[in-house]
Amino acid sequence: MRKAAQWVRSLVFIGQMYLAMLVVAVVFLPYAIWRRDGALRAMHVYCRYVRWSAAVIAGLHAEVRGTVPDGPVLIAAKHQSFFDIILIFGALPRPRFIMKKQLVYAPILGWYALRVGCVPVDRGKRGQAIKAMVARVKSGAEAPGQLIIYPQGTRVAPGVQKPYKVGAAVLYDELGQDCVPVATNVGVFWPRHSLFRKPGIAVVEFLEPIPAGSPPRTFLAQLEPLIEERSEALRQEALAQLSG
After folding, report:
1. Is residue 37 situated within a structural domain?
2. Distance (Å, whole) CA 31 – CA 107
3. What is the average per-residue pLDDT within 231-236?
4. CA distance 75 to 151
5. Residue 6 lies in a domain
6. How does pLDDT run across 219-231, given as a tens digit for each residue?
7. Distances (CA, A) of 161 to 54, 155, 227, 228, 240
8. Which CATH number goes with the domain that contains 122?
9. Is residue 43 part of a domain?
10. Share of residues in the chain with pLDDT > 90 (%)
11. Distances 154 to 49, 70, 107, 117 between C-alpha atoms, Å
């Protein structure tokens, strides 16, 4: 009975979440067309709303830990579900994602993502994608801020191993910026292939920065264990919540 009720809450939450996306997009559209900051404001409002409604409707609370950077840095984050996008974007002052090219064509989301300076890349053409990604970022055509990349290139379920790709190391080397790793356990509560939302406290944690200047291979050798070990610790924390 309790699980059935949680299914109802999950479905209600998901339905109103997408409806809210449409409402926020329409309300902020004139401001977003006029100024890029208007699009950023709209997306921050939406992220806060999703976080609030997840807690109220589905019992899924969120916690952002660590020191959130406010200057230009590279963010290398664990990606488990749409919820970590919401939490990371909502926490940062001027975020922009490295995103797959297909999202450009997504209704509403694609236009707003481009408007705030997200960088689309074709993941099917790896070498060309990396070169294009670096060129777009370094050209100054994109807005300054916190550039977010998912080093594994896609969503990965909690506890699943998947190698880190070279794109994050290339950006780190070319940009000459510190990199802030981000760990998470949100996939325990918001699974990538399920509509069911588990109640609890999902965590996104900003870890200590990796200073600029290390060789790319050294950087990747530091980055992967930092994110993976902390994400695993957060996964165990989440499982303890659910079992308690």
Report:
1. no
2. 18
3. 97
4. 10
5. no
6. 999 999 999 999 9
7. 28, 11, 12, 9, 21
8. 3.40.1130.10
9. no
10. 68
11. 25, 25, 20, 20
Would you mind telling me the total number of residues written for the chain in this entry? 244
Residue 228 pLDDT: 97
Total tally of structural domains belonging to the chain: 1
Select, from the ranges 117-121, 158-162, 185-189, the one with the highest average predicted confidence (pLDDT): 185-189
In this prediction the pTM is 0.91
Residue 34: Cβ-neighbour burial (10 angstroms; 0-12, 13-18, 19+): exposed
Question: Containing domain of residue 150, as a range?
Answer: 61-102+116-243
Mean pLDDT in the chain? 90
Separation between Cα atoms, residue 137 and residue 158, nearest integer Å: 30
Residue 168 lies inside a defined structural domain of this protein: yes
Give the model's confidence band at 141: pLDDT under 50 very low, under 70 low, under 90 confident, else very high.
Answer: low
| Of 103, 99, 108, nearest in space to 132 by CA | 99
Residues 6 or more apart whose CB falls under 8 angstroms from that of 60 comprise 13, 54, 83, 189, 190, 197, 198, 199, 200, 202
Give the per-residue pLDDT at 187: 97
